[in-house]
Design a protein that fits this description.
- By secondary structure, the chain is an all-beta fold.
- The chain is built from no helices and eleven strands.
- Strands 2, 4, 5, 6, 9, 10 and 11 form a seven-stranded mixed beta sheet that branches. A four-stranded antiparallel beta sheet has the order 1-3-8-7, with no helix packed on it.
- The protein starts with a strand and ends with a strand.
Length: 115
């Protein structure tokens, strides 16, 4: 089994920054991809940023230039640096890991951007 532990969420003002972190532990077969999704009230869960084991990245258009995803493959961790935060970024952020052919999800961490 794989467990995901997320940290770094909180309340920030518009224009501020947060750094989210996620660590995967347990029985790791192969981490093919790690990333972050988010879900705002009344909206569908959406991809925020994703990185494959080879280093390729995908970002939502709404966060390009503001968010940066990074991985430490040796430690099976993924982080999301979020800069220039906007109220529209307010959501629950979920860590996602593709372990072999199976997706695993964290419990989610709340990010609130408000003045």
């Amino acid at each position: 089994q794989v467990q995901l532990v997320e940290s770094g969420g909180g309340l920030v003002q518009p224009g501020g920054s947060l750094r989210l972190s996620c660590a995967a532990s347990g029985i790791i077969l192969r981490i093919n991809a790690m990333g972050w999704y988010r879900q705002a009230p009344g909206k569908q869960r959406e991809l925020v940023a994703r990185m494959t084991s080879g280093g390729g990245t995908n970002y939502a258009d709404s966060v390009k230039g503001r968010f940066t995803i990074s991985r430490d493959n040796a430690k099976n961790t993924v982080a999301l640096q979020m800069n220039s935060l906007k109220p529209e970024d307010t959501a629950v952020y979920y860590c996602n890991v593709l372990n072999g052919l199976i997706n695993y999800w964290g419990q989610g961490t709340q990010v609130t951007v408000s003045s």
